[in-house]
């Protein structure tokens, strides 16, 4: 994996002029993303440091979206193989393999379409993010910019939108709900949850050890 990272690192260095400057993400808040611009602005968004986001939510999002987040370098090779095998077996696209860092790359800089060029750009930006930012910072940015409803972005806005409380005050059950509606909050973001989301919540809470 290190050789792969080195290879793509060289590619990124050669073509860095065409890619965003992720160095600016090392500190401070992020108030605008490609997804927000596509939605013509985030009507509900308020940045908070990761210390003010419930540990329940941090844990829930990781186990729900990217269980090997702290073990891989941006691309989960094992999950990628499993995804390809399942999609080939079914003969259609039925399982994704996006890690939290890959989702962040899309949210920050790209569009929602599934064109090949976008997937390649997503991969390169993902590797660049992983090379420059620590995992804690990647998770902090992700939790603050990910979409959690119609024009609702970030954990703080989501906590107020669904539960009328701060992100720091979220319970394990509330955190499991927010994690369970990712990455399609506009489809599943209804509270109280329906049967599908309720099942996902139960699974997430089991993985959290709750």
Could you explain how this protein is built, in words?
The mean pLDDT is 86. It is globular and about 45 Å long. It has a three-stranded mixed β-sheet with strand order 1-3-2, with helices on one face. The protein has 210 residues and is mainly alpha-helical. It starts with a helix and ends with a helix. α3 packs across α11 (195-208) and α9 packs across α11. A hairpin with a 2-residue loop joins β2 (147-149) and β3 (152-153). The protein has helices at 2-14, 34-38, 55-65, 77-90, 100-109, 116-132, 135-145, 155-163, 172-180, 185-188, 195-208, and strands at 44-45, 147-149, 152-153. It has a single domain (2-12, 43-208), classed as Penicillin binding protein transpeptidase fold (Orthogonal Bundle). 56% of the residues lie in helices and 3% in strands.
Q: Could you outline the blueprint of secondary structure elements for this entry?
A:
Blueprint: H1 2-14, H2 34-38, E1 44-45, H3 55-65, H4 77-90, H5 100-109, H6 116-132, H7 135-145, E2 147-149, E3 152-153, H8 155-163, H9 172-180, H10 185-188, H11 195-208
Structural class: mainly alpha
The CATH topology, please?
A: Penicillin binding protein transpeptidase fold
Helix percent band: 55-70%
Q: H/E series, N to C?
A: HHEHHHHHEEHHHH
Do you know the CATH architecture? Orthogonal Bundle
Beta-strand share of residues: under 5%
CATH superfamily: Biosynthetic peptidoglycan transglycosylase-like
Please write the CATH class name: Mainly Alpha
Task: Work out the radius of gyration.
Answer: 17 Å
């Amino acid at each position: 994996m290190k050789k792969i990272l080195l290879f793509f690192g060289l590619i990124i260095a050669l073509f860095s002029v065409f890619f965003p400057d992720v160095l600016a993400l090392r500190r401070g808040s992020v108030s605008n993303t490609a997804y927000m611009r596509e939605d013509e602005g985030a009507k509900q968004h308020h940045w908070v440091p990761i210390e003010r986001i419930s540990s329940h939510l941090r844990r829930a999002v990781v186990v729900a979206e990217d269980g090997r987040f702290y073990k891989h370098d941006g691309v989960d090779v094992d999950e990628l193989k499993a995804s390809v095998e399942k999609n080939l077996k079914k003969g259609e696209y039925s399982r994704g393999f996006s890690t939290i860092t890959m989702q962040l790359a899309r949210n920050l800089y790209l569009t929602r379409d599934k064109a090949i060029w976008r997937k390649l750009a997503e991969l390169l930006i993902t590797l660049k993010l992983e090379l420059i930012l620590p995992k804690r910072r990647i998770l902090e940015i992700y939790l603050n910019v990910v979409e959690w409803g119609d024009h609702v972005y970030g954990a703080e806005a989501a906590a107020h939108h669904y539960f009328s409380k701060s992100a720091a005050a979220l319970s394990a059950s509330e955190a499991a709900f927010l994690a369970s509606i990712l990455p399609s909050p506009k489809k599943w973001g209804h509270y109280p949850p329906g049967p599908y989301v309720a099942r996902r919540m139960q699974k997430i809470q089991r993985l959290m050890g709750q």
